User: Which sequence fits this backbone?
């Protein structure tokens, strides 16, 4: 019961927590560059500022799809945190990403289109790895339910270390961090799909990104099983790793990203699966 | 039952003949009436079937069938000479030789030649309801075809003949009869594909002919080996009754091969891809309710015998590969019909795979996919026809203004794609059932299971991307077109589309009922084991598997409903702005990304050939 209670609290607070992660990230990244950086609550200040802007849309469907992207992402996160079916979660995840891609395609904006194309390619790059991870977990826990992984007595990390490495390699794609931030790539496609959103409508896309943090870190937490301390440790490690990587690398192009992800990350996860299925 | 069956077979054949002689206006009403009567008959046939009913035909029918077989092969031979196709000629000679040999050596039997069971009745509904709608749609479509009035009648006539042949295929028990009906559908598709009589149509029709003839030859081979093994008569029921004895894998493998060829699985996929040179209703017919659906039907028919054999593993490996290869192939296409064709091949692979697995859950999944794919695909193809005829669009990359000029067509096409993709549409439930079962299969069968699961899930992800890409183009518009005004495309077009929309709505709202009262009994009959589907609280239990209802239901309001609502929604008191162009003033043509799969195609075909060979190897070992 208490698990469900914690899950519900987490779901309700998810946007706020995600905002905090984002705020902390900006501080950490600044410190790595020997800057002071913005205050931790800066994302929330930005949030308030955006709410005050003049309302403008390219067309209604576009703005609406952006809002639904946020809502369905929150829902997918809810299903995930409540220990729902992992395959369903991955599909819902694919579908809420599809909504933002649809929004990107629905305008006649060059950058929006390019961004949508690149987001779609990012999906091809990371989705197979997520699926392999879910299948590997199934083979260990015997259930597709995320709760089975949350309650597994032994941390899954010990049985699927390569899959964890693969996850670490695809997370930068999902969270649009360098070197795999091709979907957003401000210098090339000026933010991609986000570009045509503004003011209060941008708010939805902006906070959706915060939810994506919680989603990704929950994926990391899955590897700890019922070991909460290990889970927190893994999340902290991932947090520092992601920001260090973001600071230290330059963007690759989308072909290199695809090649690396399908060549290296996918293979790692697959080898892990083979070992699991043969042992 | 006999009279119902006589109606289901006799009516389309009679209509087929009458269409050739009746005047146009009368023909039109007859088509509509026949479509409705056939649908009602099929539902009646389903309602009246609670067990397998064997139908023994009088003895002289055997002679008629043998005569028809020979006539058919002579016709194929004539085509081979006329079109100078050595391949068709060779295959016809082989078939002829095999057939004459079998006719002389076939032991006389008093067993029923036809058998109607729940699976046949299920197929009746799929065939007659959907083909009926397509036939009505064709009335209008063929009007605008640049050809002589007689050929227009001829086109409709073959469609009804096709329906009649299909109704026969699904109730044949005797394999010799089955061979004839199988080849009759081959002939019907050959005539339809070559309908436009240009060089491309003819070439593709020949491809379809010889590939399906290989399937026919495989059936003859199956009969031959079955008789030689001395296990009695050549019929499906005998094959199933003997199944536990083993040693019958070779005939089973040959029949499965025939099924896979009909189902356009690699390396035999090119006949279905080539078939789209024909008028669009033909594609709709081939892809949704007839022809290719013979493949999952045959596998389901054989599934109790196939289950847990090395042969089943070989089929599963092949279809898993085809699923992902076809999905990736679809991403490389721009032509709307080609995209649909590739996704048909992928989903057929899934249906066949589920049939070969043969557990209660997978059989339910296979049936659900068959029916819902039939509905969605026919609607998409009918839309493809409207896009061609009314909007003159063939390629998806040209469709980015459809949301402005034809919002209704754009909307229903979007719904068609979503019904193949999103929860809680039936096809999604079918896929979900498949994936969840493959999970346990992955634990049992280890490597093959894991490979299959990954292929299916990744393939589904690729298909999702594909559909997203197309839907994205369909909903594109600019700020000036923020309010939608539906266009008019004509009564026949709109009427048939509405009929299919109603069926899709039925598949959503009636799903729990369909699962418990429609798919479960059919699956129980087809898989020869108890299939329990129960609804308890907020969950559906299919056998031992529990499917929660609530998450997909909520997902419905978030995803498909949101995308449909996005077409209509209109924010007031909000300023409209132009897109950001970075100061550039160039005309930018919007296109999407494509994967170039051309380089991979030869490899895919090679792997397909190897896996096809594996079928035989699995049977012989």
Assistant:
């Amino acid at each position: 019961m208490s698990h469900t209670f914690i899950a519900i609290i987490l779901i309700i607070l998810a946007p706020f927590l995600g905002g905090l992660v984002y705020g902390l990230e900006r501080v950490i990244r600044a410190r790595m560059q020997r800057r002071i950086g913005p205050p931790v609550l800066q994302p929330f200040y930005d949030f308030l500022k955006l709410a005050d802007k003049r309302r403008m849309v390219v067309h209604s469907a576009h703005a609406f799809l952006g809002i639904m992207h946020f809502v369905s992402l929150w829902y997918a996160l809810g299903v995930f945190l409540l220990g729902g079916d992992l395959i369903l979660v991955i599909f819902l995840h694919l579908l809420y990403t599809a909504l933002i891609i649809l929004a990107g395609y629905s305008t006649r904006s060059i950058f929006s289109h390019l961004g949508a194309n690149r987001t779609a390619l990012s999906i091809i790059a990371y989705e197979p790895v997520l699926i392999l991870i879910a299948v590997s977990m199934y083979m260990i826990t015997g259930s597709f339910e995320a709760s089975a992984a949350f309650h597994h007595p032994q941390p899954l990390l010990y049985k699927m270390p390569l899959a964890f490495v693969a996850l670490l390699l695809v997370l930068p794609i999902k969270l649009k961090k360098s070197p795999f931030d091709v979907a957003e790539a401000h210098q090339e496609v000026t933010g991609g799909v986000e570009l045509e959103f503004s003011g209060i409508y941008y708010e939805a896309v902006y906070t959706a990104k915060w939810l994506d943090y919680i989603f990704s870190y929950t994926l990391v937490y899955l590897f700890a099983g019922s070991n909460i301390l290990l889970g927190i440790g893994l999340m902290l490690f991932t947090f520092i790793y992601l920001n260090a990587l973001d600071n230290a690398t330059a963007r690759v192009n989308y072909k290199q990203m695809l090649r690396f992800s399908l060549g290296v990350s996918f293979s790692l996860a697959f080898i892990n699966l083979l070992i699991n299925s043969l042992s | 039952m006999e009279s119902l069956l006589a109606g289901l077979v006799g009516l389309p054949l009679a209509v087929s003949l009458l269409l050739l002689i009746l005047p146009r206006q009368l023909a039109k009403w007859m088509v509509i009436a026949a479509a409705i009567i056939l649908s009602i008959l099929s539902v009646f046939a389903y309602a009246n079937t609670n067990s397998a009913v064997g139908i023994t035909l009088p003895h002289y029918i055997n002679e008629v069938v043998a005569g028809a077989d020979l006539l058919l092969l002579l016709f194929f031979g004539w085509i081979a000479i006329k079109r100078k196709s050595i391949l068709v000629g060779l295959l016809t000679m082989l078939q002829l030789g095999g057939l004459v040999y079998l006719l002389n050596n076939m032991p006389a039997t008093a067993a029923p030649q036809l058998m109607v069971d729940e699976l046949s009745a299920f197929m009746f509904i799929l065939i007659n309801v959907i083909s009926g709608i397509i036939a009505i749609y064709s009335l209008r479509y063929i009007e605008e075809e640049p050809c002589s009035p007689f050929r227009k009648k001829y086109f409709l006539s073959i469609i009804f003949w096709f329906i009649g042949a299909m109704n026969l295929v699904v109730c044949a028990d005797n394999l010799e009869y089955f061979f004839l009906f199988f080849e009759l559908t081959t002939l019907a598709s050959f005539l339809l594909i070559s309908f436009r009589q240009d060089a491309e149509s003819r070439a593709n029709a020949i491809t379809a002919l010889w590939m399906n003839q290989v399937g026919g030859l495989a059936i003859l081979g199956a009969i031959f080996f079955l008789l030689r093994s001395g296990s009695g008569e050549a019929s499906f029921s005998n094959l199933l009754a003997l199944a536990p004895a083993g040693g019958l894998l070779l005939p089973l493998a040959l029949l499965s091969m025939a099924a896979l060829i009909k189902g356009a699985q690699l390396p035999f996929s090119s006949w279905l891809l080539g078939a789209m040179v024909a008028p669009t209703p033909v594609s709709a017919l081939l892809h949704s309710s007839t022809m290719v659906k013979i493949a999952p039907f045959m596998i389901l028919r054989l599934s109790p015998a196939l289950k847990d054999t090395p042969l089943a593993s070989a089929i599963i490996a092949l279809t898993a590969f085809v699923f992902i290869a076809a999905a990736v192939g679809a991403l490389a296409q721009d032509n709307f019909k080609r995209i649909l064709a590739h996704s048909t091949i992928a989903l057929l692979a899934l249906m066949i795979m589920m049939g070969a697995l043969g557990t209660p859950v997978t059989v339910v999944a296979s049936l659900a996919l068959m029916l819902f794919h039939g509905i969605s695909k026919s609607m998409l193809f009918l839309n493809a026809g409207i896009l061609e005829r009314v909007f003159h669009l063939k390629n998806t990359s040209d469709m980015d203004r459809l949301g402005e000029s034809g919002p209704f067509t754009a909307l229903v096409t979007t719904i068609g794609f979503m019904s193949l993709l999103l929860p809680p549409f039936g096809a999604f439930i079918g896929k979900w059932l498949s994936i969840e079962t493959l999970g346990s299969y992955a634990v049992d069968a280890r490597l093959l299971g894991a490979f299959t699961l990954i292929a299916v899930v990744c393939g589904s992800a690729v298909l999702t991307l594909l559909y997203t890409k197309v839907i994205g183009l369909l909903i594109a518009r600019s700020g000036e077109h923020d309010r939608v005004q539906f266009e008019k495309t004509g009564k026949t077009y709109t009427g048939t589309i509405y009929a299919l929309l109603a069926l899709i709505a039925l598949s959503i709202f009636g799903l729990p009922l369909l699962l418990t009262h429609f798919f479960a009994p059919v699956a129980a009959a087809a898989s020869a084991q108890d299939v329990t589907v129960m609804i308890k609280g907020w969950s559906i239990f299919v056998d031992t598997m529990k499917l929660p209802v609530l998450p997909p239901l909520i997902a419905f309001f978030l995803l498909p409903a949101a995308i449909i609502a996005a077409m209509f929604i209109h924010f007031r008191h909000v300023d409209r702005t132009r897109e950001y162009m970075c100061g550039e003033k160039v005309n930018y043509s919007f296109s999407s990304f494509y994967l170039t799969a051309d380089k991979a195609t030869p490899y895919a075909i090679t792997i397909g050939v190897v896996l096809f060979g594996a079928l035989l190897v699995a049977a012989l070992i």
About this structure: Chain A has one domain: 2-278. Residues 2-278 of chain A form one domain. The longest strand of chain A covers residues 56-57.
